Each structure stands twice: as structure tokens, then as C-alpha cells.
Amino acid sequence: MQYQKIGHTDIEISRIILGCGSFGGIGSAPEFFGQGENEEQSHEILDAAVRLGITTFDTADAYGGGRSETYIGNWLRKCDKIVRNNIVLSSKTYNPMFIGDSKGLSRERISEKIDGTLKRLGIKQLDMYLSHEMDVQITLEETLSCFNDLQINGKISAYGASNISCEQLEKSISICDNLNLHRYEWIQNSMSLLNYREAERILQICSKYGLGFTPYSPLAGGWLTGKYQRDVNYEPGSRMTLRPEPYENYVQHQNSIFDGLNSMKKISKERFGDISIAGLSLAWLLSDCRITGIVIGPRKPEHLKPIEEALNIHLNETDRIDLANLFPVL
């Protein structure tokens, strides 16, 4: 495993971050609360991740309606002190935790939700806290000041933002400088071989200000694993059957994507000993030194295998360019 400090902090994370969005649900969607992995299955994935050297877990208060945080907290209580002390926890807030719950990033709501997160995880201080989405109904000044106060008061060690635009990030940095607030220390947006061009702009800003970057969906919802085939129905229980909306753009360009995947298999066999498409896709991200860590959301312990492949190969700049050029501009 590889490890790296994030932003300007002393927080050292594993470059593979375990995404826990399927623990007790399917992401933040209330209609799927209680589905996904149950607590026993979630603990098996956590155990397997730790054996691989993963120390950093990514969750959110709305994942499974609080179940994800609860499962992680219960798992931590079973661990010995050495394991617990090595774990870095990251959680997020914005989305409703139950039908009828509020959403957003007001000072009042964040202050309430962080207490619930700490209680469910069984900790006094959260290592990393993110806004899950940006709240256009609340001023950035209010949100940033609240996160800053949580850090000063010791409830969180550092904070960041997920699903933020370049304009919002630049404005947030300016506000923090003007008000003498702690800045975001890292950004967590979607990035993979299928949608890296938009993320590239954010990466450039992060590099400029020394911020970390921890992309999620590095396998594009399964499109970069080979699980979806041309002219074959989607596998029951897959993201494309449960929650296809985020991937509609891939469906529209599926022929070009499938052509790219076939070419990717040839490159893998010729240059890297025929490792999996998923492993090569992860290695492509890890080979970018600007990326602090990538968030992987396995549904089973065996889904961690591509991580081992990715950590054991090296991509040069020619490899990176050749792989990127296989797919359409999305």
C-alpha cells in the first residue's frame, strides 16, 4: 500500500480509500436505505481492506440513512487499539438522512449533523469532514465559517468539499483568505478514464494551492471493470439496474466505450502481463502524483483484487496518454 499526507495537514491517508457508500444502502438514496451490504458483510469488507493495508474509510451521514457510519463504528469497537489508532475516518454531510429530513449546509444543520456522525462512529473527533454537495441556498461564508469553527473546537481535524465546481472552489479559497479561515484541504470529485477532462481543471486548482484530491467513482460505476458487455442486459443488482441516472452519458456513448475497452485489453496484455481492466484503470489514476488517494467502493472482499494489481505496476507518460486516448471526450 502507498500512503500520503493530504493537503497541508499531518493526516496520512492510504492512497486507496475504502468507499463505504453501499453499507446499509445504495449511496444516499432513501429508497435504498436498508439494502446494500448488511452489517456482517460490511465488516468482512472492512477486515479485507485492513489486511490489504487500507487505513482510510470514506462514508457519509446519509449513506444507508446512518447505517454506514453505525456499521463502521461497531466494527471499530471490535478492533484492537493498534488497528483503531491507524484508521483515518472521513465522512460527509448535505443529503437527507431519512424521508422528510432537511438537506443543505447551513450552520445549524452542519452543527447538528456532525454530532450524530461522531456518535455513530463512536469517536470524539473526526479526521476528515466534507460537504457532500454544494448548497446554493446558503452563502459560502456561512458554510465555511461553520466548518472552520468545528475545526477550532476540535470536532474535526480538517475539512474538504465534494462535487464542487472550479468557480466555487476559487471563490471558497478567496473567502477563507479574506476572513482568515482554515481552507479546504482536499477536494473529492468524480474522476476516471471516462471523465477525467472535467476533473483536470479542478486538479490544476488543487495543485496551485497545495490541496489534496481524492476522486471517487474511479471505475465509472463498473464501466471500467468489463462487467458490462455490448448488447448484453445489465447484471441484476448492478448500479445500472439500481441507479443508472449518473451513467446515462456512458450509455449514449457505449459503442465508443466498448471499442476503447477492447483496445485497453490489448494494451494490458502487450505491456502489463494481462492485468484486469479495473486494475489498469486504477493504476492510471495512481500514476498521477497530484492525486492523493482514490475512493474504491467494493461490494465484496474479492472486489479488492484490482487494487493489488494497480499497486504492483508502473505506468509511464506514454502509457497514460495512450490509455486516455482510447475513449471519447465525455
Describe what you observe in this structure.
The chain has a domain at 3-188: TIM Barrel (Alpha-Beta Barrel), CATH 3.20.20. The protein is 42% helix and 12% strand. The chain is an alpha/beta fold and 330 residues long. 42% of the residues are buried. The chain has an eight-stranded parallel β-sheet with strand order 9-8-7-6-5-4-3-10, covered by helices on one side. The chain has a two-stranded antiparallel ribbon with strand order 1-2. Strand 7, helix 6 and strand 8 form a beta-alpha-beta unit. It is globular. One of its GO terms (molecular function) is oxidoreductase activity. Keywords: Oxidoreductase. Residues 16-318 form the NADP-dependent oxidoreductase domain. InterPro entries: AKR_Detox_Biosynth, NAD(P)_OxRdtase_dom_sf, NADP_OxRdtase_dom. Pfam families: Aldo_ket_red.
Task: Jot down its keywords.
330 residues; alpha/beta; eight-stranded parallel beta sheet; two-stranded antiparallel sheet; 42% helix
Runs with pLDDT <50, length 5+? none
Indicate the mean pLDDT. Answer: 93
Shape: globular
Q: Give me the oligomer status.
A: single chain
What's the end-to-end separation, in Å? 31 Å
User: What percent of residues adopt helix (DSSP H or I)?
Assistant: 40-55%
Highest-level CATH class of the domain at 3-188: Alpha Beta
Topology as H/E string?
Answer: EEEHEHHEHEHEHEHEHHHHEHH
- The CATH homologous superfamily of the domain at 3-188: NADP-dependent oxidoreductase domain
Major beta sheet, specifics? 8 strands, parallel
Beta-strand percentage?
Answer: 5-15%
The CATH architecture of the domain at 3-188 comes to: Alpha-Beta Barrel
Tally of extended strands?
A: 10
